[in-house]
């Protein structure tokens, strides 16, 4: 990184907001993607960004982006680095734009149920701020305490309560964005618009390639009056899917609806699982009368689908342990590598994808566990969240085996017509599989949008956009 450029940044922002110490560069060089953690653990040579800047306002972001544009310096936005697909991987000639100093709650409007946040606001802190007014964002990714509001938008995140409250794109009201040319735009003005295409969608899921989200206004909701749970043993996945489908098709909407296959039921609910059964777990929220009616209705539907009631304690156990963050290095130390892969599909596709992907994983040398659960349900279908673990005598074979697991699940999903990415985004890991979702012409459209917004390709190069 040229010293002159670093000096120009200091002139714009002040020395305190421009970091070049090895400690800071190292801490911002990549996200939570397991492969980057593996490479680091194996002490493989890894690049670090040339500089990390921490602007404090949208105006400062604009001036930094304009300078980087003039000097053709790549910009890698960084929220809290909890992304799991390699969306942050900074090269030595790049500048990491860390949103960490833009972390304020700007406004909470209790009448219109709107909360406005700096993009770098920690997710849990944003939720706690609105909770003080008896409100909730209703977006609960497992990573809520280690991710930012701007990161949620940039990766099209989904929270655990999405079945009733929606994923982030259903919760975003408006976005404040600095475009790659330094212009500031406000996208989204009113509760609903027919003012041309919804430009917010270009940024939601752009993973830092189309601009920098500096502010986010979210539609809030009042905290639920009542919460209840229900849990059932599922003798087959099929019976569980039938019950889930019937529940949402009858317009019952438990915010949380998760079905675990027998492997995951045994692993996650040892004290509650039954023999070789899976587990269907629901959390119901809302006005008491509706929750009571929903509990009765899902009980009937589950009985008709042949499911047996399981202890509520299983759901309470999940509520208490649901935001655990695993440490990859603990697994590497045991010669294991693991990851999760989320996909989505219609009700008629989902079982074939499960069968095909699990068989493909189990067929692979070294695999000691391959399993799945569904955690986000829609009228049209649901997601599956695969987990695999593979064991190796030597850590040198882990990377190739890991990539093969991904290939098998991506291709099994595509073979049966499913969508290859439900909520973790694409990053560097999944970008070359996006063609399955977008088609060749869709990929070309994505490239056209990218080139129009960022003709010099300075925004997070190498990320998201499939290789030519
Ligand atoms: C244990 C664990 C559990 C997880 N659970 C969930 C879950 O339940 N649901 C879910 O959806 N995800 C989950 N994730 C994934 C991750 O937390 C989300 O993708 C999250 O939205 C990333 O936020 P972040 O602030 O950490 O972003 P980062 O990791 O810092 O960045 C993610 C991407 O967005 C870009 N970016 C970040 N901020 C901005 C910005 N302001 N403007 C433009 N681009 C930006 C980055 O360049 C990068 O490409 C989990 C991750 C972990 C480690």
| CATH fold topology of the largest domain | Uridine Diphospho-n-acetylenolpyruvylglucosamine Reductase, domain 3
- By CATH, the architecture of the largest domain is named 2-Layer Sandwich
What's the mean pLDDT score? 97
Q: Name the poorly predicted regions.
A: none
Class based on secondary structure composition and strand pairing? alpha+beta
Gyration radius, to the nearest Å?
Answer: 23 Å
Strand order of the largest sheet: 15-12-14-13-17-18-16
Domain tally: 4
Could you explain how this protein is built, in words?
- With 468 residues, the chain is an alpha+beta fold.
- It has 4 domains: 3-100, Uridine Diphospho-n-acetylenolpyruvylglucosamine Reductase, domain 2 (2-Layer Sandwich), CATH 3.30.43.10; 102-222, 2-Layer Sandwich (Uridine Diphospho-n-acetylenolpyruvylglucosamine Reductase, domain 3), CATH 3.30.465.10; 226-321, Alpha-Beta Plaits; 328-432, GMP Synthetase, Chain A, domain 3.
- The protein has helices at 3-13, 22-27, 34-41, 58-71, 123-131, 149-155, 162-165, 168-171, 200-203, 237-249, 262-268, 288-304, 313-321, 328-333, 350-362, 398-415, 435-453, and strands at 18-19, 51-53, 75-78, 95-98, 105-109, 114-118, 135-136, 172-178, 184-187, 212-219, 221-222, 226-234, 256-260, 278-286, 308-309, 336-346, 367-374, 381-391.
- The strands form 4 sheets. The protein has a 7-stranded antiparallel beta sheet with strand order 15-12-14-13-17-18-16, with helices on both faces. It has a 5-stranded antiparallel beta sheet with strand order 5-6-10-8-9.
- The two termini are 28 Å apart.
- The relative contact order is 0.12.
- The mean pLDDT is 97.
- The structure holds flavin-adenine dinucleotide.
- Flavin-adenine dinucleotide (FAD) binds at residues 31-32, 76-84, 87-88, 99, 119, 141-143, 147-148, 150-152, 154-155, 157-158, 207-208, 212-213, 325, 423-425, 460, 463.
